[in-house]
Design a protein that fits this description.
It is a single chain. Strands 1-2 form a two-stranded antiparallel ribbon. Helix 9 packs across helix 19. The chain has one domain: Orthogonal Bundle (MetI-like fold). A hairpin with a 3-residue loop joins strand 1 and strand 2. It is 68% helix and 2% strand. The chain is mainly α. It has 20 helices and two strands. The protein starts with a helix and ends in a 10-residue tail after the last helix.
């Protein structure tokens, strides 16, 4: 965004004022939180039952009436969850405000300044506690909406496939292309700046910025560490989060325990990564703590990253699980099938797209995390995102852009590889989405 709309930006003439300030934060946070909200909404909308829309159409209900009576009641809880997530991620983020915020002050930035600039750890922790209030409010409203939300996917559900409509489809296509153009423009500018010798005076292309071993910041070791941590976070975290969400949503024996666990799952999205990292430092760096041996290791970085991004992954899993009718569990009990078999043979195949979204989300988030990990790494476990900050502090902006480009392409490559590798599994597990051929 700075290379596009900053004082020396490529598109500086398109805006009356520069990007620094309130509207710069709004645009940056919209891009930053877009995939978080999209995951939750796609998880809810993909579970639509075609029978309800067919019944509405046969009774003469128009598209707006069908949306108001079917789509909105079935997805309002997910929409509110996405709203709360975007709100809390924005109010607790300090990365975007510290770059494009200018003179506009936010709470998360004040916490960052108190800890890093003034060494006032107590003041930073106090601001972090204030930032917990939105999470508590979100939890209360989410609990109320959960009681109003019914099951939307039964055992006889059929996948919804909207009929073609040229006007509507072209309108939505234009909206999608516009969103994609904005995202590609911002990310593409970062890639282009990594190839420019010296912005904006020498725009000739070169790969000199990718010679990480010749510059300070961490080099290729940081990139390898990030890939290793992202793989461990994605594989271990997705299994733990999805299984935990299933046990909380589908078992009612310990209601108070489930309520407490749901509240704890909301808290990480409201805790700034900086405060979360400080908490890990204060706890694991105590000499008398038997867990002190994990301080500065890759294990602690993996645990911290899973905890940091727990909320979005948990919301995605619970949104998918809440769509499943309780008749699935009733059928399993009538057949005397154990819980683990029902989980493996029924729940997991139906919710596999959401699980794959969680795996992809955790990998990408682990590749880009910096706020929580900046206090926890050692010289042997330095991460790529931290190396970006180190190179930028050293004045090597081109090298920072080059490392960011590697993070971007690695995340995109793994996402495409995951989509390609899971095609066969999805084709078998999502066979219920295929239309039954008519005779």
């Amino acid at each position: 965004m700075v290379y596009l709309f900053g004082n020396q930006g490529l598109l500086r003439g398109l805006i009356a004022d520069n990007i620094y300030g309130f509207w710069g934060i709004v645009l940056g946070e919209a891009i930053y939180t877009f995939p978080h909200a999209l995951m939750i909404l796609l998880s809810a909308l993909s579970m639509a039952d075609a029978r309800l829309f067919d019944a509405a159409s046969s009774m003469g209900a128009g598209p707006f009436r069908a949306f108001r009576s079917i789509t909105w009641p079935g997805t309002r809880q997910a929409l509110f969850a996405a709203f709360c997530l975007v709100f809390t991620l924005t109010i607790t983020d300090f990365g975007v405000p510290v770059v494009v915020g200018g003179d506009y002050q936010v709470l998360a930035l004040e916490a960052y300044k108190a800890v890093v600039g003034q060494q006032q750890f107590g003041r930073g922790a106090l601001i972090g506690m204030v930032l917990l209030l939105p999470a508590l409010l979100s939890f209360a409203v989410d609990a109320w909406l959960r009681r109003q939300h019914g099951d939307t996917l039964s055992g006889r559900a059929q996948v919804f496939k909207p009929l073609p409509c040229k006007g509507r489809d072209r309108c939505y296509l234009a909206i999608v292309l516009l969103i994609c153009a904005v995202l590609l423009m911002v990310f593409g500018m970062a890639v282009y700046s990594s190839l420019v010798k010296f912005w904006p005076y020498n725009l000739s292309l070169s790969l000199n910025h990718y010679q990480f071993n010749d510059t300070a910041g961490g080099g290729w070791l940081a990139y390898r560490n990030s890939v290793s941590m992202a793989l461990c976070t994605a594989l271990i975290g997705s299994v733990l989060i999805f299984t935990g969400a299933y046990l909380m949503e589908k078992t009612n024996a310990q209601q108070r325990l489930n309520l407490a666990l749901r509240m704890l799952c909301f808290i990480p999205m409201a805790v700034p990564g900086l405060v979360l990292g400080l908490g890990y430092v204060f706890f694991f760096n105590l000499p008398g703590n038997p867990l002190h041996v994990f301080y500065g290791t890759m294990t602690l970085l993996v645990v911290c990253t899973i905890a940091h991004y727990l909320t979005t992954a948990h919301m995605t899993a619970t949104t998918a699980l809440r769509q499943l009718d309780s008749e699935f569990e009733a059928a399993a009990l009538s057949l005397k099938a154990p819980l683990y078999r029902h989980y493996w043979r029924v729940t997991l195949p139906i919710c596999l797209p959401a699980l794959l979204d969680i795996v992809r989300y955790l990998f990408v988030s682990a590749m880009t995390t910096v706020s929580a990990a900046i206090f926890l790494y050692s010289p042997d476990t330095i991460l790529a995102a931290v190396a970006v900050l180190n190179m930028d502090d050293a004045g090597n902006v081109g090298g920072a852009a080059a490392m960011s480009t590697l993070i971007l392409f690695t995340s995109a490559g793994v996402s495409l590889l995951l989509a390609w590798a899971s095609r066969g599994v999805l084709r078998r597990s999502q066979a219920w989405r295929q239309s039954t051929p008519t005779q």
